[in-house]
Structures are given as C-alpha cells and as structure tokens.
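User: Structure with zinc ion, tokens only please.
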Amino acid sequence: MPKIDLPYMLDFCPLQTEDFTRIHEFFTNLKEGKFTTTKCKSCGEILWQPRVVCPHCNSDEMEWIDLPQEGKLFAFTEVFYGAPLGMEDDTPFSIGIVDLEDPKMKVLARVDDAHYEDLEFGQEMKLKIITLEDGRVWFRWVRK
Ligand SMILES: [Zn+2]
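Assistant:
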C-alpha cells in the first residue's frame, strides 16, 4: 500500500491500484510510457479523463486507446498562490492546456521547466511522465 502523508481527499494524485480505482489501467499504462484514455464501445465517444461509465450513453463497456503525447499549447498561466497541498513549495509553476490532434481533446497539466514568460500560444509541447516518491505516476507537459 502506498504511503500517503496527506488526507486522501486532499491528495492531488489519486491512489492508483486496482484496490482504489477502476481506472487503474490508466496508471499501469502510464508507468509503461503509454498515455491512454477510455473509448466507449457502445457510442464510440472518446472520453477524457478516463471513465468507467460513458456520460453520453451510460454504457460501461470501455476500451483503452492510446493518446498522442505531443500537442500545441492552447492556454497557460502561472500558479503563485493556492497551489494544491503538497505543491506549496513548488510555486511559482506553470500549468497549461494542450490541444491534442487525434483524437481532438484538450488536456490540462502542470508545465515543467518553463515559467509564464517562456511560453507562447501554439507552442509544441510533449508529455512528461513523472514518478512520485511513493511510486505513483503522473504526467506533466514540457516544451518540445
Ligand atoms: Zn457511450
């Protein structure tokens, strides 16, 4: 069982094993370097974030599909105050929404190694997978 210092509801990164989440495969895939989400087998809708039930048709028949790991920066800002618990010491840091091309979707994540003045709209970005101290994984964007 992973070590959690923060109360679970305040922990930014979710518990990632089968015992805690039905989208554990997302994290297993991420650990293997794959960025994935769910696609509804019934209506074909591609969902972000990964879901266990389709919000369009209520089906729970999902398949996992690969997402592109590169895209263009759609929007960004810098966080100075009000960072999630556990990230207070990291401020200031940037966050950005990246446009993925196929399938078309927008994915929000923290941007590593760049402050606000280093970023511009339309900039090429790529996914960076990070491993937390307790072995959990998460993703961020970095400039390409
Ligand atoms: Zn559906």
